[in-house]
Amino acid sequence: MDDRLTHLDETGAARMVDVGEKPDSERIAVAAGAVYMQPETLRLVREGALKKGDVLTVARIAGIMAAKRTAELIPLCHPILLTHLDVELTLDDAHSAVAIRATVRTRGKTGVEMEALTAVSVAALTVYDMAKAVDRSMRIGDIRLLEKRGGQHGDYLADES
């Protein structure tokens, strides 16, 4: 594994990585996370009974919008043309949580890991925002890259532990 930080130049200054000479390839990233809440809050989300409306639909749209704007949010990310983007939110009764999963695809010179992670993060923040009036103890967690395919660094599949 290359432990060199690619967003630093030889003097240690931050820089955007030059991807101009890299070949285009199919790139896919999958990220996940969750918002943990009280069982009563999860019931209200399920029933669509929160004052702000349909939590899952609004959070899904927020995640999609955020992924498309990742380069505006993360300073050294390249703007990327996304060819596919899906954000799924499911209710996890066993953990009293809203589970979030984002899948992002492009054909280009750089990966879409940051877009997938941004989608999950903003979807989670949206769930929190919409339900905070009834449960301020919610906890956002477990945000991580599950899978990455394509590019010169090869594929990555997270350990399930």
Describe this structure in words.
By secondary structure, the protein is α+β, with helices and mostly antiparallel strands. It is built from 4 helices and 5 strands; from the N terminus they run βαααββαββ. It has helices at 39-47, 55-68, 70-73, 113-131; strands at 25-36, 84-92, 97-108, 139-149, 156-157. A 5-stranded antiparallel beta sheet has the order 2-3-1-4-5. The chain is elongated.
Please tag this protein with its features:
29% strand; 5-stranded antiparallel beta sheet; 161 residues; single chain; alpha+beta
The total count of strands amounts to 5
Oligomer: single chain
Question: Which whole number gives the mean pLDDT?
Answer: 90
Spatial order of the strands in the main sheet?
2-3-1-4-5
Sum up the overall morphology in one term. Answer: elongated
Percent strand equals 25-35%
Radius of gyration: 17 Å
Distance between the termini: 21 Å
Write a concise synopsis of the structure shown.
Helices cover 29% and strands 29% of the residues. The protein has 161 residues and is α+β, with helices and mostly antiparallel strands.
Present the secondary structure layout.
Layout: E1 25-36, H1 39-47, H2 55-68, H3 70-73, E2 84-92, E3 97-108, H4 113-131, E4 139-149, E5 156-157
Antiparallel strand pairs: 1-3, 1-4, 2-3, 4-5
